[in-house]
Amino acid sequence: MREWLVIQQLSREASRSRVLLELFTVRLLTVSGVALLICIALALGALAAIPAVTQGWWTPATMAVAILIVGLVGGLVLEDRAGTVFQSRPVALHLNGLVRRYRRGFLGPRYVLFSERLRETDYFTVDALESALRCCDAELAMNHRGQPGVRTGPAVLTLLVSVGLMAGAPYVAKYGLEPAAMAAGLVLALAAMMLLALRSAQAARHGTEETRCLLVWALEEAHAEAPGPRLT
Questions:
Q1: 37: Cα within 13 Å, side-chain hemisphere
Q2: Number of Cβ atoms within 10 Å of the Cβ of 177
């Protein structure tokens, strides 16, 4: 279990935001870095210039075209940046284009960061990674069944009924039901608060599937690097 908790922590540290930070801060004095800076300048220039030189419907139309062009070009620039920043790292030299192949969601660059951190720990062993993988599979199976979890529906329904009772209380005053409606609304409001608190207390589920992929890749590398039996 300890191995799985460490793997999860390392996976969270090798996040998409960390990858983006590396792309915008590491090795900027390269062709890909200059291209990234030019792309950023074009985006800022479009935001400043288009509203100033266009009027009416031309402004949103021109902005839509600029967004498409800068966005698509920016995607190519980020892909090239990922190769420049991560593919040349020592831990990635033997991965044969993993960074480019799994650029969607930055999974390739995330694995490079994950592998770097993992190799700095004592958990880059076949036994530790296999133990973590078993715990990961158990958690995935539980998540696929929707457990553990608390449904949002009851909290929302109780909230709506509570607000409805309190809003409708003045309209039933002529029947002498206003105090009862208000009391019921307040009781349901308290219940809605409790249900919402229970729902909010459930931890958000992280990308366990991606973490499992990173874990399996690391396990394959550990198998490949493990010393084999010696022939006598």
A1: 9
A2: 14
Please report, as a single letter, which amino acid is at residue 172. Answer: V
Q: Do 229 and 199 meet the contact criterion of CB atoms below 8 Å apart?
A: no
Contact 78, 102 (CB under 8 A): no
Q: Is the pTM of this model over 0.70?
A: yes
**pLDDT > 70: percent of the chain:** 93
pLDDT in tens, 67-100: 899 888 888 888 888 888 888 888 888 887 788 7
pLDDT band at 37, cuts 50/70/90?
Answer: very high
Find out whether the peptide bond into 148 is cis, omega within 30 degrees of 0: yes
Burial of residue 77 (CB within 10 Å: 0-12, 13-18, 19+) is buried
Question: Could you report how far apart the first and last alpha carbons of the chain are, in Å?
Answer: 37
Distances (CA, A) of 18 to 12, 71, 106, 112, 211: 9, 20, 10, 12, 15
